[in-house]
Design goal:
Layout (H helix, E strand, L loop, with lengths): L21 H12 L10 E5 L7 H4 L3 E4 L5 H11 L4 E7 H5 L3 H10 L4 E6 L34 H7 L4 E6 L5 H11 L4 E6 L11 H4 L1 H7 E4 L6 E2 L2 E5 L5 E4 L15 H7 L9 E8 L18 H8 L8
Parallel strand pairs: 1-2, 1-3, 3-4, 4-6, 5-6, 7-11
Antiparallel strand pairs: 5-11, 8-9, 9-10
Helix pairs in contact: 1-7
Length: 322
């Protein structure tokens, strides 16, 4: 068996993002992690939409598809229907996935299509030069919102959980240990997996995640989610009030994280602990449960219909001659 290396997944294309872009760190993590899966490059497909993240498919020496805006999950669904032997990954951004691509995203998650979706969230439109995106905070001053955005932002993790996604995680672009761990967990999950990656845009939204990316501040603000362990960080933790609400406290009976809980209410409540990433924010796997996988766990059906069966099907019920 051939031993795979990082070089096996590096294409000959010049990597071109803005200097300091978080996409470089994510690309390096993905290329470094993939050999561990033992899947040869010819059985891997990266699908991308429009945006800075759309370049990703060109830099992976695998099969790739650069689709139109927001349609990555739809293309990936078609691939999953035709080729169950492929490892299919979608690389998308907060604008690509959550605006024009919103319906494709939530239905891929709802159906539990066996694809892995990496959502690069930099809270801005980078490729088109700095307009407010669906995750930009309220009041954000950009070229498209000169007086401040009046729209409430999407929380990608909350959205995915609301769509009944069977695997949802959040990580950070420059974390060399945590990011590969989340990628590995997503790869091992049977069904749809969404990983939100806080990704810094140094040109149009620099420092949006410094509360988590900075080593000192991150130690104070990252709330690690580890299945089976109390949710705590530093000298604080997460407790449940008598009314069921979660909150951060210095002492109390800290909530034990259960990522495998079928009821998504705990994961959803955790996703609402931080409405913006400028303070204590949960990082890790919110939910990881087993559900029937689309196209694999459907009820038994005949492999092929003959002419007689097809005629009977078309002639069933009310028919009209035009």
């Amino acid at each position: 068996m051939t031993t795979l290396t990082k070089a096996d997944f590096q294409s000959d294309q010049e990597t071109r993002w803005c200097p300091g872009c978080g996409d470089y760190a994510v690309l390096a993590a993905v290329q470094g992690f993939f050999p561990q899966l033992g899947i040869p490059p010819e059985r891997v497909v990266f699908v991308s939409g429009i945006g800075c993240a759309g370049r990703f498919a060109y830099y992976m020496d695998t099969y790739g598809m650069h689709g139109i805006h927001g349609r990555g999950p739809a293309l990936a669904t078609g691939l999953a229907a035709a080729r169950e032997d492929l490892s299919i990954w979608v690389v998308t951004g907060d604008g690509d996935a959550l605006s024009i691509g919103g319906n494709h995203l939530i239905h891929a998650l709802r159906r539990n299509v066996p694809v892995k979706i990496l959502l690069f969230n930099n809270q801005i439109y980078g490729l088109t030069k700095g307009q407010a995106s669906p995750t930009s905070e309220r009041g954000k001053v950009t070229k498209s919102t000169p007086f401040g955005s009046i729209d409430a932002p999407f929380n990608p993790v909350s959205l995915a959980l609301g769509a009944e996604a069977s695997f949802v995680a959040r990580t950070i672009d420059t974390d060399k240990q945590h990011l590969p761990a989340m990628l590995r967990a997503a790869a091992e999950h049977e069904g749809a997996a969404l990983v939100e990656i806080y990704q810094n845009c140094p040109v149009f939204n620099d420092g949006a995640f410094d509360a988590l990316r900075d080593k000192k501040r991150g130690a104070e603000n990252r709330i690690p989610l580890v299945h089976g362990e109390p949710i705590r960080f530093g000298d604080r933790g997460v407790v449940r009030d008598p009314d069921g609400q979660l909150r951060i406290a210095a002492e109390g009976d800290f909530v034990v994280h259960d990522a495998h809980r079928d009821d998504p209410s705990l994961a959803f409540a955790l996703s609402r602990l931080a409405l913006s990433p400028d303070g204590p924010t949960p990082i890790g796997i919110f939910r990881d449960v087993r559900r029937p996988v689309w196209s694999r766990d459907l009820p038994a059906r005949p492999d092929r219909l003959g002419d007689a069966e097809l005629d009977a099907l078309l002639g069933t019920g009310d028919t009209w001659t035009v």
